[in-house]
Specification:
Blueprint: E1 5-13, E2 21-29, E3 32-38, H1 39-45, E4 50-53, E5 57-61, E6 63-68, H2 87-101, H3 106-121, E7 124-131, H4 135-139, E8 146-153, H5 161-170, E9 176-179, H6 187-200, E10 204-208, H7 213-220, H8 224-231, H9 254-261, E11 268-272, H10 278-287, E12 290-293, H11 295-301, H12 308-313, E13 319-320, H13 333-343, H14 349-363, E14 381-385, H15 393-402, E15 411-414
Parallel strand pairs: 1-4, 1-5, 6-7, 7-8, 8-9, 10-11, 11-12, 12-13
Antiparallel strand pairs: 1-2, 2-3, 5-14, 14-15
């Protein structure tokens, strides 16, 4: 039996890898996109197709949230207390509050599930979720799009290294494992996790260069991050000789450190990337490593602004992430786009839209299915109501980046069989 062929028409079409199409349409049949073009052309090519009109709407790919912590959603009140906290202060409060309220349990699972559903309702087709409780693994099959659940490993000290390596060796190969950050994970553990990720062919997300004090910690054992770890009894200087067995190396930054460890390649996803030098951006470009920016969380934690124009100048199209509800008052990729445009007014809004779609899909290795509207892609796309006042492609893109859909009621999903949900 042949699948039903449905032609969806809208005043605007955003393929993302191609320019904006006015009076555009897509042809859906079965589980794939058959065609993307102007309505008049597709109507001739598919005369048998049922036609569904979407007035005052734009058809576009689903968004990708390349970094979130669903298991921290029950701590959302922390992001609504005041104007934000400096990174180490927030980390101290978050850990204490997580201990007080519990890291697992029905309340954690419900908050995580609600946050996950809200992401889909907001137009997100794929999520990269980082956790260390296993909550995200239980949510994988409840997400209508693609949820990548990563189990995060921490442990900086030598005493915790062997138990962590033993645990990793016993981990089932169906489980994605990754490292938390250079400041919290022993270098040998980072290398072991990366080696496993490469062997299994999955993305390796890691927090990199988020607070400025991370560089001082790695290079000299000084600064706010070093003081924080020392107060908690977790600090050990394992950064210079622990793995290299040679004279101390010059660690000029977190990216340089990861390069020295040999863990930068096309499957590495460096999350945040705020405090990076031009030389480090060149290392990222040369290794084809991916980058994910989280401007909402960065603003709340007052860690600074990532050098987006420099990334783009080196041929790196970053992805976007929201980070957790504990450090971001609104988990919305639409808001992340708006904040990024505010932080970097010189960047073309169309490029920011590409970050939320193509960049995210590439960062998770799913660009063959998602990120653009093209023949053969998954038949799962957004229909966003934008009103009738849009006058042209530039106006359309600026509206989406600066205003978004306004609310989730203006977002519909077109999916398998051409139905709406």
């Amino acid at each position: 039996m042949h699948p039903t062929v449905v032609l969806h028409r809208a005043p605007w079409l955003l393929p993302m890898a191609r320019p904006v199409i006015s009076d555009g349409a897509v042809v859906l049949a079965g589980k794939r996109l058959f065609a993307v073009d102007r309505f008049t052309d597709l109507k001739v090519r598919y005369p048998e197709a049922a036609i569904v009109d979407h007035p005052d709407c734009v058809l576009m790919p689903g968004l990708v949230n390349a970094h979130i912590h669903l298991e921290l959603s029950h701590l959302a009140h922390l992001a609504h207390q005041g104007k934000g906290k400096h990174f180490v202060d927030w980390l101290t409060v978050m850990l204490a509050e997580r201990e007080r309220l519990g890291a697992v349990g029905p309340h954690v699972e419900k908050a995580a599930g609600d946050a996950m559903q809200a992401q889909h309702d907001d137009g997100v087709v794929a999520l990269a979720d980082i956790g260390n409780t296993g909550v995200n693994c239980s949510l994988t099959y409840d997400f209508p799009g693609r949820l990548f659940p990563f189990v995060e490993y921490l442990g900086l000290g030598r005493k915790s290294l062997l138990p962590a390596l033993k645990k990793l060796a016993q981990q089932g190969e169906a489980v994605f494992c990754t490292a938390h950050a250079p400041y919290s994970t022993h270098p040998r553990l980072i290398c072991a996790l990366k080696k496993r990720a490469d062997r299994l062919g999955h993305t390796f997300p890691i927090h990199v260069a988020e607070p400025a004090s991370e560089t001082g910690l790695l290079s000299a054992g000084t600064g706010a991050m070093a003081d924080f770890l020392k107060r908690r009894g977790f600090y050990e200087d394992v950064f210079h000789q622990e793995i290299f067995h040679q004279a101390p190396i010059d660690i000029t930054g977190s990216v340089q450190y990861l390069h020295n460890l040999g863990v930068l390649n096309e499957k590495t996803l460096c999350v945040h990337g705020v405090h990076v030098s031009t030389d480090e951006i060149q290392l990222l470009a040369q290794s084809r490593a991916k980058v994910c920016l989280c401007p909402g969380s960065n603003r709340f934690l007052q860690v600074g602004k990532a050098p987006l124009p420099d990334y783009l100048a080196h041929g790196i199209l970053p992805a976007l992430g929201t980070d957790s509800a504990a450090s971001n008052p609104e988990l919305s990729i639409w808001r992340e786009m708006r904040l990024l445009a505010e932080d970097h007014p010189v960047v073309d809004p169309f490029t920011i839209l590409q970050m939320a779609t193509i960049g995210g899909a590439q960062s998770l290795g799913i660009e063959q299915q998602y990120g653009t509207l093209a023949q053969g892609k998954a038949a799962l796309l957004l229909c966003v109501s934008i009103g009738s006042s849009i006058t042209g492609p530039v106006d359309l893109v600026e509206h989406l980046v600066h205003n978004g859909p306004g609310n989730r009621n203006k977002i519909q999903w077109l999916h398998v069989g051409g139905e709406e949900q």
